[in-house]
What we know:
alpha/beta; 29% helix
Amino acid sequence: MYMKKIHVGFLFSHDYEKLKLSIPPVYEASDRIFIAMDENFITWSGNKFEVDPSFFDWLEEFDVDKKIEIYKDNFYIPSLTEIDMDTRERHLLSLKMGIGNWLIQVDSDEYFFDFEKFVKDLRKFDHYLDNPEKKKIQIAAFWVILYKYTDNGILYVDLPMKAVFATNYPDYTCARRTKAQVIYTDNIVLHESLSRTEEELRFKLENWGHKREVNPEFLDKWIKVNENNYSQFENFYYIEPERWKRLNYFPSKDLKQIKEFVIKSKVLKLSKTYLFSKNFGQWFKFLFK
Length: 289
């Protein structure tokens, strides 16, 4: 079997409808797409979720090249914590995708700006696929995190945040992160992390991998903040608040327009100097390991 393929994995859960936005940007440039789905439609917190059968009609109609494969298994293990189940599911999914290929995991609420460019950047490191267990690597892009929909637009975190998307060897330690060296690339991914209705957000907070880590004051601040008062608040991250110091505002809810805002933004631009220093730091850290 020929390896070194671009394999993309998604997790199917309560927000599965968002896959209609996250799969299309990666479809053309991927060789295979795998969707991990709990066979009983149960979240990591043990809650059942309903699935509209029309989603599978959409998936079949969209998959014109027949490259999408659904992988069903039992991903709810009551003796494990939510984050352990998250990590376990991603590991099993990557084994299904096949070591020897690029193992890219994208969440249903993550939308690549230019996946073709990300793949082009990945291909520069194909030699890491020759003997993945001996030369482990992770490849990161940067999130622009959408925080909350408001009446006329979207609040977002006013600084790109690093996020690992690909690896050659899936010995994950926490969700899709391993302990291997990270190579940072100047690719942007819109992350619709918390920007959903209050009801949807409450359900997410109860059923995702970070359930036990969420700061108890987080939701109150999320409810209070809006497009008129966001500059009066600070420290918005749901675990360690100060990691997301400030919000800013997109005066639109259209994802295509938001892409244009991001491209023009000086704050959200990743400089070559910044990327060089991040990658040099990682190279030096792992030089003698």
